[in-house]
Write a structure and sequence with these properties.
353 residues, 10 helices, binds N-oxalylglycine, binds nickel (II) ion
């Protein structure tokens, strides 16, 4: 893996703050990747499913709802998810304050492509690639042995404590969801957790995304189309500004987030483990000229050093194994070289028949 970026890193936030009237060429996407803003009335009414988790946990009908959301959308919003609402607001607010710090302060945490940990502005190390209109901060969270306190921001003063508190709550939510996903696939509640490598061995990381105002949002993307490489993602969206779009056939559905909801999406590893029953669906982020946007993506991932392939019970005569097994560290390093690339990475594991 490369240890430095192929080109000097430019903070998109600083670029935006200079008041550039046009988007520099390296952020201008080819025409077929540019976002479509004027959706028709009927498309505008379609929404990703919203699940009240009080109706899901431990309820057979709930398992059916989860299953259909994961098969059809790969995404759903959760209300009554159990994570404290004021904690959600505080941790997002603390990250907002972090991004408001002077560039020199943030640059103390500048990241490199070997671990991605820290403050950065690009995904992938392909030279001359078109870049996304965003900055981010990436932190390893689990297993706790890989936590590196010197990589965690020290400003604003309360941020470290808030990240820890939020991380603990979301980790518990992911454990509960893992059981639910397992049961919704017709497996024993602990089957999926075992397949991910077991509690205490699974990985998790947090990426806080910062999408600055953009003078020409129609030419670029805050985050290019991708599916998440890991297991389950829990997204805490901005409370005021939308931007996340989920692929539905040939169109993109802009998610209207419900107040205090968390958004779940299935990552490539669950698609692989479920033998393609559950889908890691492509998504992207659009930006706008009036408001900056902050989101926190908590990635819950398999243990890095075991092969991840379709769960045996989900391989049948009618549904032979679709994917060849791969270790998550290997998979992740491929993604880290290429950056966001739709579903190309998971599709490359398809067994031909
Ligand atoms: C991600 C992601 C969506 C968002 O970080 O992988 O898809 O709304 N983020 O920021
Ligand atoms: Ni994503």
């Amino acid at each position: 893996m490369a240890t430095c970026w192929p080109e000097p890193i430019v903070s998109v936030q600083s670029l935006s703050q200079t008041g550039v009237p046009t988007v520099p060429n390296r952020y201008v996407k080819p025409a077929h990747q540019r976002p479509v803003f004027n959706t028709t009335q009927s498309e505008a009414e379609i929404e990703i499913p919203v699940l009240d988790m009080d109706d899901v946990w431990g309820k057979p009908e709930g398992l059916r709802l989860v299953r259909s959301a994961c098969e059809e959308w790969g995404f759903f919003q959760m209300v009554n998810h159990g994570v404290n609402h004021s904690l959600m607001e505080s941790v997002r607010g603390a990250w907002r304050e972090f991004f408001e710090l002077p560039l020199d302060e943030k640059r103390k945490y500048a990241n490199s492509p070997d671990t991605y940990e820290g403050y950065g502005s690009r995904l992938g190390v392909v030279k001359d690639a078109k870049l996304d209109w965003s900055d981010y901060f990436f932190l390893n969270y689990l297993p706790s042995s890989i936590r590196n306190p010197s990589k965690w921001p020290s400003q604003p003063p309360k941020i470290r404590e808030l990240i820890k508190e939020y991380g603990e709550e979301v980790k518990k939510l992911c454990e509960r969801l893992t059981e639910t996903l397992s049961e919704s696939l017709g497996l024993e509640p602990d089957h999926l957790m075992k397949a991910l490598g077991g509690e205490g061995k699974v990985g998790a990381s947090l990426r806080t995304n910062f999408y600055p105002k953009c003078p020409q949002p129609q030419l670029t993307l805050g985050l290019s189309s991708h599916s998440d490489p890991g297991g389950i993602t829990i997204l805490l969206p901005d409370e005021k500004v939308s931007g996340l779009q989920v692929r539905r056939g040939d169109s993109w559905i802009t998610v209207k987030s419900v107040p205090n909801a968390l958004i779940v999406n299935i990552g490539d590893q669950i698609q692989i483990l479920s033998n393609g029953i559950y889908k890691s669906v492509e998504h992207q982020v659009i930006v706008n000229s009036g408001m900056e946007r902050v989101s926190l993506a908590f990635f819950y991932n398999p243990r890095i050093d075991i092969p991840i392939g379709p769960i045996e019970e989900l391989v049948t005569e009618n549904r032979p194994a679709l994917y060849k097994p791969i270790r998550f560290d290997e998979y992740r390093s491929l993604i880290r070289q290429k950056g966001p690339c739709g579903k190309n990475q998971v599709d490359s594991l398809l067994l031909s028949r």
